[in-house]
Write a structure and sequence with these properties.
It contains six helices and twelve strands. With 201 residues, it is of the alpha+beta class. The protein has two domains: 72 residues, Alpha-Beta Plaits (2-Layer Sandwich), CATH 3.30.70; 71 residues, RRM (RNA recognition motif) domain (Alpha-Beta Plaits, 2-Layer Sandwich), CATH 3.30.70.330. Its main location: nucleus.
Amino acid sequence: MNEMDEDKYSLYVGNLPKDTSLKELKRFFSAYSIVGAEVRDSRTTSSCFGYIEFKHRKDAKSALENYQGKDFEGLRVRLDYKKILNPRSFRNDGFRERQKNIGDYKYLCKVIGIPKDMSWKDLKMLLRNYCTSEFCDVGKDGIGYAAFFTEADMNFAIRKFSKSVTFHNKKINIKLEISKIPSIKRSRSRSRSRSIERKKS
């Protein structure tokens, strides 16, 4: 069973110039409706990489087809759909497979009160109505996690979900609280970035 799925709304953007800014990356894809972006340094090459999240799935597909290999400040970008962990590969606790990386996210919230019929994709789409999430997971017992690109997005989501929201035409009460996972060190994010770059090189 394949443990990785593809986020059809988001693209990995590889082989960017080392000093690429978030503003420059967004400008590169300005022909499309962008709802989120991120730039990360590579510790193994002289380039960096990033992620772009589109408002519409068709825009992500179009950008993947039309911008593959396009020149960006003298370098040809490499594009692919953003890879995410397939929830079907989770063990019984729901998070054991993911917790080794969950601490990599700077703006992370614990999500409480998730309905039993809500998947991680449902949660991500629900959040999309209010702000841009970088990552979502849903485990057992109505507990999940959501990470955001910015502190402003995270705080906005916390405020929005302090009241009931609509899911499948019914009101539900989901609460977001800033997550603290002391057993996971932030330094893990460095090795994670290296592994991503190697896969794309």
